[in-house]
Amino acid sequence: MEHTVGETTVVELRGDVDILTAPSLASRLDALTAGPCPDLVLDLRSATFIDCTGLGVLCRARNRAEARQGRFRLVTGSAGFRRILRAVGLAEVFELYSDLGTALAPAMRATAPAAG
To answer: Are 100 and 10 spatial neighbours (Cβ–Cβ below 8 Å)?
Structure first.
């Protein structure tokens, strides 16, 4: 599911983000990060599982957005997912937020991201 808030595209991921779903997700995220200054928020609160292929897709999208002077943020309330990101050394790589409103607020105010 995808919608726009201001200049930001919000993509809500549901269910598993794994080797089976990664190709279609990667294709969509490639399209969303193709232009200049992409502003993208992935809402992972409804995602139930993510494997290393899914993490690779998220890393690729983040790298593409940043290479084009854009932003890429993740929303998750899952302590387990945050633990996985810490374990693989990615916790400091992503802008992480606990709720969508907080993830969107810095972009609207054009200030530095809040810890979340």
So the answer is: yes
> Are 54 and 18 contacting, i.e. CB atoms less than 8 angstroms apart?
yes
Cα distances from 45 to residues 56, 57, 71, in angstroms, run 18, 17, 19
19-28 pLDDT, tens digit each: 999 999 999 9
Instruction: Evaluate whether 18 touches 53 at the Cβ level (below 8 Å).
Output: yes
Residues forming a β-bridge with 73: 41, 95
Predicted TM-score (pTM) of the model is 0.87
Q: Could you give all domains of the chain from N- to C-terminal order, each with its CATH number?
A: 2-109 (3.30.750.24)
The burial class, CB within 10 Å (0-12 / 13-18 / 19+), for 66 is middle
